[in-house]
Structure formats: C-alpha cells, structure tokens
Automatic annotation (TrEMBL):
Annotated CDD domains: Radical_SAM (cd01335)
Species of provenance: Modestobacter marinus
SUPFAM superfamilies the UniProt entry points to: Radical SAM enzymes
Full protein name: B12-binding domain-containing radical SAM protein
Radical SAM core domain sequence ranges: 244-486
NCBIfam families the record matches: rSAM_fuse_unch
Amino acid sequence: MQKPIQYVGGELNAQVKPWDDVAVHWALMYPDAYEVGLPNQGLMILYEVLNERPDALAERTYAVWPDLAGLMREHGVGQFTVDAHRPVREFDLLGVSFATELGYTNLLEALDLAGVPLHAVDRDESHPVVVAGGHAAFNPEPVSDFVDCAVLGDGEQVVGDMTDVVAAWKEQGRPGGRVELLARLARVDGVYVPRFYAVTYGADGTIAEVLRTRDDVPARVGKRTVMDLDEWPYPKQPLVPLAESVHERMSVEIFRGCTRGCRFCQAGMITRPVRERTITGIGSMVDAGLKATGYEEVGLLSLSSADHSEIGQLAKELADRYEGTNTGLSLPSTRVDAFNVTLANELSRNGRRSGLTFAPEGGSERIRRVINKTVSKEDLVRTVTTAYANGWRQVKLYFMCGLPTETDEDVLEIAELAVEVIRAGREASGSKDIRCTVSIGGFVPKPHTPFQWASQASAETIDHRLKVLREAINADRRIGRSIGLRYHDGKPGVIEGLLSRGDRRVGRVIERVWRDGGHFDGWSEHFSYDRWQTAAAEELAAFGLDLDWFTTRERTEHEVLPWDHLDSGLDKEWLWDDWQDAISEDEVGDCRWTGCYDCGVCPTMGTDIQIGPTGRSLLPLTVVR
C-alpha cells in the first residue's frame, strides 16, 4: 500500500485514553487523506476539547486510500482510528468535518468500510451517531440520508453538550432507543436532525415547504457561536504529523469571522460576527504551541489576518520575542489594502522570506464592485511594486472565474494586470528575476451568501475563459515567461455546485457515484466528471430534473431554498438586497469600522463584534534563545 505511515498513529501530542474509563466515545474524521486532514485546525481543536473531559475520549480517522480499502475488504478489517486502531463501528459518535462538499463520497466509503449502514434510517442503537460539521454542514440536505445530525457553527461548546446528552441516555439504560437519543440531540442548540423534518416539492421541482415532524424539535435550527476566544485557547498541544502534510507549521487562529462582505465568501458570511483573540492570548498560544511541537513557523490564521486590530503590534512583538531564532511568522494571504512593508518585514524577520499572496479575486474593477472586493488596479500594482522594491521576488495573485455578470473582458483584465505587475516590478527592483503566479479558481455559488440565487457558469464557459486568458498571458513571451498560471478546468466546480446548493434528492446521485467507484473527488486523478454527469442524469430524471437545474439555473427571490430552515443569523431579505446591490455594482463597507448594515447576525444570535485594540502588550519581553 502507499504511505503506510499515515495509518500508524502515535504522533507527537496524540492521545490514547483507556476505553473503559469513559462513558462516551467519539471518532473524529476528516474525510480526506491523512496529509490533508491532520493539519485541520477544527478537528485538532475538537480532539483536544473532548479528550480533556474525564468522561469522554476522542480518536481520529481519515479517508483510506483505495489500495488499502481493497485489502481491508479482502481481509474483513473495518475502518479504524489511527490512535488506538479501534473499529469506528464501536464508537458512540462519528463526527465528520466537511471543508468541501467533494468529500461526501469519502463519507460513504468510510461508513461502508466501517460496517455502518449507509442510510441513517437503517441504523440502530448499536451504531455510531453520524454527525456532520464544518462549513458544508450549513446545507447538509444532500447528505441527509447518510448523516444523523448536522452541527451548525462553532463546535467547541456543542460537542460538550452532545456528550452530556449521550452520557445521560446511556446511563439511563438507552430509553427509547436511537430515535429518542436523536430527539434529545435535536434539542441541543445548533444540532439539526434531518429525519425530524419533512420536505415537500411543487410541480416545478422547487421546494414547497419544510416542516418538522415532531413538536419537541425546533422549527428552525440556529448556529452556535463561541464568544471570547481567549477562553478557548485550542489547540494547546497541536499534533505533529509523522508523514509529510500540506501545512508544516504551527497555526494560531487570531480571530474568527469576517465582515468585509465579500459576496462570494460563504466562510465570511456564516462565521459572523468578528471575534478577535487578544494580543496576550495569541502570544500565550504561540509560546505554548512552539514548545509543544518544535515547529519553526507560526501561521497567524483567520479569514483576513491583516485585519486584526493589533496586527502590526502583534507581528512586531512576536518577532522581537523570537529574535535570533529560526521562528518565522506567516499570514495565509494578505489583502491588498492591508499590506504594508513594515508588517511584511516583521513577519519575515526571523524566518525565510517566502512569497506574498494577494487575493484581488476579480480581474476588472467592475467585477470587483460586483463581488464587493473594494480594491483598485492602481492599489494592487502599487502594493505589489512595493513588495518587489523591498526584496520580494515572488508574488501570487488569486482570482476567480465565472463570477456573476462576468464577461470575457473581465477575465482578460487578469492578464493585463499580471503583465503590468511584472513590468512595474522589474522597474522597481531593477531585476528581471521576479515572478508572478496567477492562480484561478472557478466560482461556485454557496448557501447563506448573496450569490446563493446566482446562476453558476457552465464548465464550457469556465474552460473558454481560461483558454483566452492563457493565450493573453502568453501573447508576449518576454513578459509571459515570468507569469505562472495555475488553474483547474470547470468540471469539478460544477459538481461542487450541485452538492453545495442541492437538496435531499441529490443524495441519490452521491450514492450512485460512490457505488460506481467514486471517492477522493477533490483529487484530480480520482475525479470523474463523466461518472457524476451520468449519475445525475439517471438519478435526477425520476424527479424531472437535471444537473443544470441545480447549477446554471438562477433562483427567484421567493423560492424556498433547501437551507432556509437552517439559520446562519443572516436575514434572507438582507442577502437578497445585497444580491441586488451586486447586480447594480454597489459596494458595501465593513461594519467593523462603519455603521451597521442590518445583516441580522448580532441581534439574531445575541452576539456582537469583538475587536480591539485592547491596549495590552506582550511585554515585558522574554526573548527566546
């Protein structure tokens, strides 16, 4: 088998607790390969939170590569955890964190390998409760046949509440069986149990209504929001992988949520409001994490890290603290309008000077107004030129293709921008030895965003625009050879679109694809568009629907959307108004620094924006040698 080390376990900071010493057993799964799943912060946090409880344990499992899956079936070995190599089937709960909908087929593969019935209705009290989490859980309808529960929002507190429910049910002798356990879980804030909600459809194929089938579960399920992140300084002891992983660093989430209002960004919408960690809280986490791991790079993570109200002070004081060591700091990407050389120099002072990443998202200023990414061409060129002039040689620019109202001309401006960046950079640096990488992702409309009503561009449209962009970049080889172009074709995005905005009828498509051999759909070497297209055509025909109905069709204002009964805190009317503003190319400011725009989150969730500056400092300084 390939990379057997990924199944061994025993990583630094991994935990194995005695099975019989606790009442509740969680298996936590990231439905992708070990190298992608192990660095995942969400899973790592819940692993620690649960294992700190004296009455619970948590172990980890990841998607199994096809070579080992075949051997496991041949020898009758079930899906197991990497910590104690226990069968997943023996756990009370199986929590699965979905960062992308393309992991759904891996869930089915894991359930089948574990010997757990695929369909939730076929399970009894001997089977684990299958719990979906992560951003994709804000529309779990496509996998509602396969999961017992979905958790909306932050998981730190809700997993504790669920553990309490399961422990009490087991101690009482499992009254009412599995149905009673699920009913109790459905009454936990933030937990949605699909089996207690019935969906009916109209003659045109749209949803007529979604009604609960029990009076003791909520008619509408709201998300959970953790306030005061300093009270949740996890992970305290981050896991260090045994095998190479996608992120070789220790990461600290410096704030959660975003109010920039980028209309394409589901993460920014569903994680509102902004909640900052204090500078002292971050400093403590960095110190503890480095001591626990031995890493030499610290990632300061959030959706827009340079927007932390004390980011300049934080970067300087962390750089001071680790002066003379090999400990470097990094931001995942930097907003064009938040970049300054002082910040960048502090981040790279003790570590390597790696490339800078900026995300203009749209090629033209017009399309950036549509998506509410307020940055001008002049700002971008000036910022990148400043970076080149101060010694950086590599800049990565991230854009999307297929955005609402987009034309070929909008995409061609990406090429013009890249060419101008190289020309200005050569002039500023006095060197031709500079690079600009243009990375293109296909736009996928997501639930709980202003673009949830939008028509998705077809794969043919995406591929055509990528072709003309490639030709434009290569038109002048003297410049073009300094510009790298990275992109994926449009087909995986179409399937992601089907799964992100699908309803319960799409579950048949997912199951058909898995039965036909589909898994690891996020990996180009395993993804088969033909397999998905065939499954969609044959399974959706029974409902008079097709793939285009779920993807390229624009929704109307009053259509009942599959996730309308799941509350992210955002008013649907506000989202619609913002969609109309997008079509009119009207921009909206950031409510951290301007007035409230009445999106609905703060009053609905009983929360508020939490930002500094706090006036605190990491001083008195203790320099680490």
